[in-house]
Amino acid sequence: MATPETSPTSELSEREREILRLVATGASNKEVAQRLYISPNTVKVHLRNIFAKIGVASRTEATLYAIRQRLAPVAEEAALAAEDNNGTGQRPSAATASALAKAGPMDTAQPTAAAGRAYSWQRMWPAVALVTALAILLLGLGFLVNAVRPWSIPSSPTPPPVVSSRWQTKAEMPTARSGLAVATYENEIYVIGGETTQGVTATVEQYHPASDTWATLAPKPIPVADVSAAVIGGWIYVPGGLTSTGAVTDVLEAYDPRGNRWEQRASLPVALSAYALVAFEGRLYLFGGWDGHGYVATVYAYDPSRDQWTNQTPMPTARGYPGAAVTGDKIYVMGGTDGTQTLAVTEAYVPEAEARGENPWQTRAPLPAGRLRMGVVSVAGIVHVMGGEGSPQLSPLIYDEKANQWQPFQAPNLPPVSKVSLAVESGNIHLLGGQIAAAPSRQHIVYQAIYVIQLPLLSP
């Protein structure tokens, strides 16, 4: 018997283990790449190495291997049941057969991962029959089952009924604030800076989802508001922002969650606040913002390995207070203001096209109405927009990239809020702080964007 030191799992690097865990949840190469900020080609290379090390030939076999090695959290119950029957040559009679993920306004059920012991397909026919029957039933009821894209969005423009169980109120932030930066690192949420009733703050607070509690951390050296944060390589980066004096700064500060400390990095080419920020394949991309004189169309990329900012092709539309999110190989930038009007314009930036010397910008479907100071995140390749300022009714929105279409979805008891920030953790979207009725808020509302249903295995 192989020891832990000589088992195939022990030969996997930490990055390979991380990729194997994601593959076991049903994530595609593109979704794994997006989650880890690497290219899909890099994912393919890692998968070839993983398959060779653990002795499998397909994603299904890799998933079953991850389950058996307790690397796949979704299938933990099935793995435990299988261990109870270890060596008996019998299937567990009541273990988890599969996981179905649901997302989007219609709560469409989609298969995301298999669960159970690594049996041969001949011995798994009861589970296969059950899943097949379920798929036929769902199709008969008019649901869309898409095995290639598990979290696809129905194209119907009519908002679905409210599913209030997917919205929950969690422990409020200790400090009421708006225009704050948020980031998620190792399933912990970090809230940085923002504006309070006493002015711009340097306060940093950490949320623990498992215990629904908050902790106070080392403050940011320079208090700022109207900022965003992004994570690369275990560091949380917060560029620029509006300072307590009302001036705009060009300082880039990076926070180390493991050491609870801050460091200063290379300054922005110009002072900026009210920008949009994302991390993509190991680089920060900063779009637009306010430079102290007006709203700009500039785009900057930051390479942490070189501690260097570079100019990129400017946006077609100058704007401040926009939103941005990554989907596939594109970065979507939407909404904002040009100083005279609230914008509905949505434009997509393609970094690979920039690298080839081509025009990296594409015009996409505009928002249903102009909107600024909203929260924007991407979950499983689906862009979610919540809050903001604009027309009187600002419903939460999702973007169907394939259909190039925005759709509203209802949110029970969600108050009108601007200068709000969103964070993603384990398939949940955390709506944090913001400005409600002209005052900073402590609110903390969670939307369950993805959830899992477990089905039992049939006895032989």
Explain what the structure shows.
This protein has 460 residues and is α+β, with helices and mostly antiparallel strands. It folds into 3 domains: 71 residues, Winged helix-like DNA-binding domain superfamily/Winged helix DNA-binding domain (Arc Repressor Mutant, subunit A, Orthogonal Bundle); 84 residues, no CATH class; 270 residues, 6 Propeller (Neuraminidase). Helices cover 16% and strands 33% of the residues. The strands form 10 sheets. Strands 3-32-29-28 form a 4-stranded antiparallel sheet, with no helix packed on it. The N terminus is likely disordered.
Question: Key terms for this structure?
Answer:
about 450 residues; alpha+beta; Arc Repressor Mutant, subunit A; Neuraminidase; four-stranded antiparallel β-sheet; 7 helices; about 15% helix; disordered N terminus
Give the arrangement of secondary structure elements.
Blueprint: H1 14-24, H2 29-36, H3 40-54, H4 59-68, H5 76-84, E1 96-103, E2 108-114, H6 125-140, E3 167-169, E4 181-185, E5 188-192, E6 195-196, E7 199-200, E8 204-208, E9 213-217, E10 230-232, E11 235-242, E12 248-256, E13 261-265, E14 276-280, E15 283-287, E16 299-303, E17 308-312, E18 323-327, E19 330-334, E20 346-349, H7 351-355, E21 361-364, E22 371-372, E23 375-379, E24 382-386, E25 389-390, E26 397-400, E27 405-408, E28 421-425, E29 428-432, E30 435-436, E31 439-440, E32 444-448, E33 451-456
Antiparallel strand pairs: 1-2, 1-33, 3-32, 4-5, 5-8, 6-7, 8-9, 10-11, 11-12, 12-13, 14-15, 15-16, 16-17, 18-19, 19-20, 20-21, 22-25, 23-24, 24-26, 26-27, 28-29, 29-32, 30-31
